[in-house]
Amino acid sequence: MKKILTVIGARPQIIKAAALSRAIRNNYSDRIEEKILHTGQHYDMNMSQVFFEELCIPKPDYNLNVGSGKHGEQTAKMIAGIEEILLSEHFDGVVLYGDTNSTLAGAIAASKLHVPIFHIEAGLRSFNMDMPEEINRIVCDQLSSILFAPTNTAVANLKNEGFEIAPAIFHGNKHRQVYNSGDVMYDNSMYFATIADKKSNILREYGLQANSFILATIHRDYNTDSKERLTDIFKALYYIANEYRIKIAIPLHPRTAKLLEINLDVDLIDKVKQLAQILILPPVSFLDMISLEKNAKLIMTDSGGVQKEAFFYEKPCIILRSETEWVEIVENNAGIIADADFNRIVNAYNVLSVSNMSFPQLFGNSKAANIILDKIVAY
Ligand code: UD1
Ligand code: UDP
């Protein structure tokens, strides 16, 4: 029996953890025991608890309740808390997801105590070192014993950094391993798609018709924290909603909700709030989000996860960033990088409303969790 500690903290990590927990419950309960540690990075009901309930994720065994804070302060509290738990109980490995401060803290705490790290979503790179996520994922990859890359691009990125050529040796003489496991988010999106069709009422609740609205999410720090960028994005949303008479549903991340009031001019906020086509919603549950994604005409986002879900559900996507880790989406003409630039966003909307795009199966076969768990059992 292998005993693992899953460290999660931010919304997308909680959602991703559902895929592994479900596979452990269904197929690996005789070989893997999982305990869950929630750092408390995200804590609002609609950023955390709702996902545990809806996606049947076991209640966390530990919650550090660190809350929000500056990077160093928040990460330091997490490292101290995770370290205590790793010292108090033996684990054969720590499972880390993605690139948040919770990922970084888990990587630092576990590596110093020689606990093997299994990194899910390894190898992704934006090549933009201004992003806190790029720093977090590079550090975590370096410290990991098994790197589960979700795409061929992620494997290639790791090879370019010398991963398979110069394998590191970890505690107990073990070598680092790199695998293309596919994407656990694809597992989840396929598993919950029909459940969302049956259970979600969000379209009715907000009067949305299939294929006649845009779904938008914005939360990336360089978009929310910059007056100029946030203004350009919201000017473009306003223009598209008004000019093309199309509804735009925006489930707003709490970070953005707070900064909207600070970084947008009162005139623009008032115009946005008064336009009936723009629906600013609180963060929605995962099943509601799937329903919005599956039924949207087009998706606009700076989220990593939402870009991919757009692709899984075969929706065109305007990427509100200057680059993406998910280059396959752009290569298949299913997404356009428009940055936070008014003209580029409006042009992308016009192009994607009429262009031909393809959605090949690039993110695995919806069995990534099983591939990952087989390797963990064998490690
Ligand atoms: C974090 C991750 C980011 C990920 C995102 C997913 C880091 C550095 N960033 O960004 O990679 O894409 O989560 O959503 O780890 N807040 C609340 N309630 C909450 C959580 C946050 O009000 O439950 C507000 C607080 O004002 C907080 C702000 O949102 O200061 C930012 O939260 P934080 O977790 O620091 O970063 P995110 O922007 O959420
Ligand atoms: N999501 C959700 N409700 C929302 C917005 C997003 O359930 O209101 C889900 C979304 O479907 C995806 C994940 O949260 O699975 C993406 O998280 P987020 O955009 O916060 O972070 P990122 O992926 O950029 O790290």
- The CATH architecture assignment of the largest domain turns out to be 3-Layer(aba) Sandwich
Shape, per Cα inertia axes: globular
Low-confidence stretches: none
CATH superfamily of the largest domain: Glycogen Phosphorylase B
Helix content: 40-55%
GO molecular function: isomerase activity
Organism: Bacteroides stercoris CC31F
Protein name: UDP-N-acetylglucosamine 2-epimerase
Family: Belongs to the UDP-N-acetylglucosamine 2-epimerase family.
Task: Write structural notes for this entry.
It holds the Pfam family Epimerase_2. InterPro entries: UDP_GlcNAc_Epimerase_2_dom, WecB-like. GO terms for molecular function: isomerase activity. This protein has 379 residues and is α/β, with parallel strands linked by helices. It folds into 2 domains: 2-183 and 364-378, Rossmann fold; 198-352, 3-Layer(aba) Sandwich (Rossmann fold), CATH 3.40.50.2000. It has helices at residues 11-28, 49-54, 71-88, 101-112, 132-143, 152-160, 184-199, 202-206, 221-224, 227-243, 254-263, 266-274, 286-295, 304-312, 327-331, 342-354, 368-378, and strands at 2-8, 32-38, 62-63, 93-97, 117-120, 146-149, 169-170, 174-175, 177-180, 213-217, 247-251, 278-281, 298-301, 317-319, 335-337. The protein has a 7-stranded parallel sheet with strand order 3-2-1-4-5-6-9, with helices on both faces. Strands 12-11-10-13-14-15 form a 6-stranded parallel sheet, sandwiched between helices. Helix 1 (11-28) crosses helix 7 and helix 4 (101-112) packs parallel to helix 5 (132-143). The N and C termini lie close together (12 Å). The structure holds uridine-diphosphate-N-acetylglucosamine (UD1) and uridine-5'-diphosphate. Residues 10-12, 41-44, 47, 68, 99-101, 132-133, 219, 221, 253-255, 258 line the site of uridine-diphosphate-N-acetylglucosamine.
